[in-house]
Design brief:
single chain; 322 residues; Aminopeptidase; 2 domains; 10-stranded mixed sheet; 3-stranded antiparallel sheet
Length: 322
Amino acid sequence: MAGAEHTVTVRRYTSEDAETWNRFVETCRNGTFLHDRRYMDYHADRFDDHSLMFLCEDKLIAIMPAHIKDGIFCSHNGLTYGGLLLPDSTTTETVLLIFEALRRYLLEETDAKSIIYRPVPCIYHRYPCEEELYALFRNNAKLVECKASSAIKLKAPLPIRGRRKLTAAVTGRMRITEEENYAPFWEILGSRLKSKYGVSPVHSLEEIERLHALFPEKIRLFTVRDDNGDILGGTLLYVTGCCVHMQYSGTTEEGRRTSALDYLYGYLIGELFCDKEYFDFGVSVEEGGHYLNSGLIAYKERLGGRTVTYNTYLIDLKTTEE
């Protein structure tokens, strides 16, 4: 492993490295299927990929999903989180050397003037993996976004407070289903997002169906239907080794009236995924964290969620380590 006497070298990822890359992601303490090239490449046309591979004595010791835009090296604007992906063996000293090599590579081989860096939040780590946070500090990184998400520790959840009690008469008319046909829910989701926030889902129906086909055990859609078979609401989940992340949720007017999502969350959190470490409801902020949606986060907190942050850092390549 790298030490003071060893040199870390940097190589740009190419499509020929895809198999090596994907195998390496599986060994990383902080890697998830979002870093798999099959997931990353669904929007390859939107980003000029400049992912990097870091080696010491010809051994791969870290990788970084990334792209460059307008002189900024970003890891990664197309992913919820990026940063360095590290296997068990990569140590703090090595990560400092990796950052030195990264800075040198960007200054010598690219036109990048700064780095945007999004580390993987700790709830996705299968083993402690915050060497990069120390390296960010040593490289004078500035926190530029702080997005508050809400997560439940599934093996020791806080009690649910202030939630409507669903009677047997109500739940007896509901049925939870794992869906393979995403179109009906996507119509409900799109309508809800448009009416409430004036936005559309980040993924088109075609994109999410293609990703589900690639990762059927990791991208899963659950809905609540009434006794007529009509969808009341649902949630699309990203399932990683440690964490279940709620990527999308949406309801109809009737679903909101009957608290259909409360019933669904109770099943997902208390039964189906109780063997996982965390259930993450997703962020409740806008404008990079400067605006907090108080009503939204209060609902998640009533269910037992407490804050985990998704942070973004900026490194000015013109500065040097103190």
